[in-house]
Amino acid sequence: MPGDKGRDGSPARDKWQRAISKVAASTAIAEETAAGERFARIVLERTFVDTVNNERAFLAAFGQRSLHNQLSSKSLKVDSGRDLETELEDAGTADGGAPSTPGVDPNGVSPPDDKAERVARLVKVQKSLKGDGFAVCSAYSRNFEYDPNLTFKVSQFARTLFYECIPPGLNWFVCVGTEMLFFEHTFKEATCSASARGFILPIFIFLPIKPLFKRLCQFFGTMEGQPGFFFFFFYFFGFWCFFPICAVALSAEVREYIEPLELVPMLVLQCGRMLCISCKYALLPESYVNDRFGKMYRPMKVTDMGRTLVAGGWNKAKDEEHFDMLKMELENACIQADVDLSNTEINVGSAEAAAVIRFRSRGIGERSRASAGKAPEVVSGKELLAALTDVHMGAPMPPYMEPGIMLFAVLFSLTSPIMRAWCGRPMFGATHLSKAASAFLMMYSWFIFANNMTFSASGAWHYKRQYNAMLALNNMVRFPGEPLINFLPDVPLGPKGKVSPDQEPAELRQLRQKVAQKPDLAFIVDLKDPASCLCWSLVRRSLRHIGSSWGRRMNAYSVIFLMMSFASAGMLLMLYYGADQFDHRLATSGSFYVLSICISFLVCTTVIEASAINEMVPKLRSWLKRETVAIAAQMAYLDVPKVRTDADCKEEEQLRSAHRLIESVEQYILVEEEQSEPVEVFFKVHATPAAVTFVVSSLLSMLLIAMQRGFTMMDSEGWSYSGPQGQFTRD
């Protein structure tokens, strides 16, 4: 080569020697070592490190490293910048904020394969739309992805809270104007944002004139597929809220039947709803709310908005409109846990158990990589995680919860009218205006109470599902194991609601027959198998991150409802201890009693369900310690002086390896699940029995003090609710 002076004294050799010296210094190799020897040692050490990092255990335990290498080899590119608008305008369809994910049909037409196959084919990990890190793309919603590094967006929280304070109709103008003036969005982007938030203009009056209605919807950015009742819903419920407020504020005859304090329980619930919705937008993925490429700033469909709702999304994770949600959560959890379960293996005890795992995992779109030498009772860690996700984390809210919420909502809304009747006054007033105000107050109280209770119950149900999933995984390593029947799906129902097993796949019918013949079949994982032990521990780590984005939202909700509980109980104390300063009526105190009791009950239930997850950890660690004690005893037995065979030496070495691995897993569970990342509520409070005791004792004490003060005042101080309209007065 030009400029190369040969082996000795050449510039190339000088450069090589300087490089070797630099690397040697960084690897702590003595400078006096010969250059050739230093180079050989460096190559050996680097080769060893690279080899170890590419071993199966390291690839599994450090998933983001292997994932980075896989994506780098594919040279994936993601466009960025405002020039995305041109592509979206050319597309002319309802889609989101960045170019479509490769493989997604831009027209939204489903491929000929079934929904699980579509999810398996299209839900994948890719480079994030932000340009840094990883993300999980959707199979049903264009340009929507899960972001593992989810952050609380203060800007979205503040602007959402501001918009929610504005009355319906007017909030559309405020939202569009604010987005254009302060966040530099175009008119089209701003109208799409308002529509995505549910802010709409009264164009539903033109619904009978279809062509005009369609043009108005296009101009004002109304979402595709938005049904007519959507317009009525927001306007009428908004009217029910503001009408009684205005009537009480402006009419003396209405105040004769509805005192201003009687509106406070409804306003407390309204504030809770606004804060919950604000937290929702603050914790949505960047692909949905980002000002540059967010999906909510582009034309989209109602189904895209539905996947962001607690009641319609996470509580119904297997809904047809977002069937990819569980698979996306699974992939997102693996990224967050920094594991790669694709090449891990776990022995679940029997071929039937492995078949059930594979069937459930395929149901949400998980496909394992074929392995010729795999035993029939062995499955991959990804399949086990998918099965647990499908069975437990994907379970819908129990059917009795929604009617129960509605029942309590009706009781709360009827409290004020019943209290008025109890005092001998008309339930809904005597004048037309007072009757209308009372009726609207009752209807909106029902709606807002049910809405808030759904948020709170969703938090309790989220932690309950996570507990069930972790319990099933724990049972798999303890005798008698986790019964197979718990993982078999329910028999499908026919057209007339009758059981119709003929509609099931032949594979599932055969599995049912085998389980019926052997009812004691169960998932049993022996942790003395190194591959199974590693896989089980990594599946456990990943399972704790399933639904983490929803879990963060539930954590924020828990703070809101705790504040609402203390506010309601505090108002009761104020009513009685401040009775000399201001008047109140029986309808007001009765509403606060019902509200504080219901909210406090749900808050306590949420904390109890969350703490149950953390309480499992010491029990599991205790069982793992028993396993290591048994292994240590067996090794001690092998150390008894006798003629040792090669089989004894091999068994002892295997036991030592198993002992070290199980001990490491137990210590890791201690550090992560008890010290570093336990389940938290109320923002940063560990969900422990101490937290449960604090919440229950505080709320119960406030309620009991209020009740005791009220009874004392009525029993010995001459107070009663015998005043006009049930007013609390001293005789």
UniProtKB/TrEMBL annotation:
<keyword id="KW-0812">Transmembrane</keyword>
<protein>
    <submittedName>
        <fullName>Uncharacterized protein</fullName>
    </submittedName>
</protein>
<feature type="transmembrane region" description="Helical">
    <location>
        <begin position="405"/>
        <end position="423"/>
    </location>
</feature>
<feature type="transmembrane region" description="Helical">
    <location>
        <begin position="687"/>
        <end position="706"/>
    </location>
</feature>
<feature type="transmembrane region" description="Helical">
    <location>
        <begin position="444"/>
        <end position="463"/>
    </location>
</feature>
<feature type="region of interest" description="Disordered">
    <location>
        <begin position="89"/>
        <end position="114"/>
    </location>
</feature>
<feature type="transmembrane region" description="Helical">
    <location>
        <begin position="229"/>
        <end position="251"/>
    </location>
</feature>
<feature type="transmembrane region" description="Helical">
    <location>
        <begin position="556"/>
        <end position="579"/>
    </location>
</feature>
<feature type="transmembrane region" description="Helical">
    <location>
        <begin position="591"/>
        <end position="613"/>
    </location>
</feature>
<keyword id="KW-0472">Membrane</keyword>
<keyword id="KW-1133">Transmembrane helix</keyword>
